Known about the structure:
It comes from Merluccius polli (Benguela hake). Keywords: DNA recombination, DNA-binding. By secondary structure, the chain is mainly α. It folds into two domains: 3-64; 77-255, hpI Integrase, Chain A (Orthogonal Bundle). It has helices at residues 3-21, 26-39, 52-64, 77-84, 97-112, 116-120, 183-194, 218-235, 248-259, 264-271, 276-283, 292-297, and strands spanning 129-131, 137-140, 160-163. It has a three-stranded antiparallel sheet with strand order 1-2-3, with no helix packed on it. Helix 1 runs parallel beside helix 3 (52-64), helix 5 (97-112) runs antiparallel to helix 7 (183-194) and helix 5 packs across helix 8 (218-235).
Amino acid sequence: xxxxxxxxxxxxxxxxxxxxxxxxxxxxxxxxxxxxxxxxxxxxxxxxxxxxxxxxxxxxxxxxxxxxxxxxxxxxxxxxxxxxxxxxxxxxxxxxxxxxxxxxxxxxxxxxxxxxxxxxxxxxxxxxxxxxxxxxxxxxxxxxxxxxxxxxxxxxxxxxxxxxxxxxxxxxxxxxxxxxxxxxxxxxxxxxxxxxxxxxxxxxxxxxxxxxxxxxxxxxxxxxxxxxxxxxxxxxxxxxxxxxxxxxxxxxxxxxxxxxxxxxxxxxxxxxxxxxxxxxxxxxxxxxxxxxxxxxxxxxxxxxx
Length: 305
């Protein structure tokens, strides 16, 4: 090994060690190493990031500071769904665009497990929005120019198909014209209210301000999804959980689907994950409402002698 090249590799590890000591996560350190590799010459015929000294350092950093992820979601899906079935989210025909937009965005996100960027790319163009006969559902497609984060032929322009709910009379509250949690029902009403202001083929459009009727930003769409969760808590007098992120709907939706017996292959296809390992490592939550062993072993008060 060239001593000069070895010194360069050692220098990189020393620099990254100082960042690790400063409290940076191992994943952040890897980003720094990748940036250095892109701008420096090769060492011993390989990039700096692939050098033995650097790769060993990165493995050690990963073990010393493994990524921490909360095993349970920050917000409760049953609580939010219950709130979406009551005021201020119902009756649907009485809602203004502010609340209706939040409800529609959340229902599409939780029903599809899609990324915000994928929801943002959905279009109302005639070839991208197709209603099924008899109001039984709808198929949505993204703008053809949209490129998904997961660039694969299996996920390019993947359609989003939603079936309409057919509730019984017992499921419908006073003044309701359909299942309160039906995303197709909410979507249809949203399109009706935005038809008069729409200036863009994007599904979600701004309903206030100087950009009224124009395409909504991804950041604002994320805020709508989070807003639906926060309003669900506050309207019921429950403290709003901190640090709620719109991206969490993917993990929550997939985890509940897995709990209900949906095959992992179907979940991965819906969420555009190439492998179940992605779900298991980064998105799986413990959404069991109670401890299954305790509930099976310990008797309830009515069962006690």
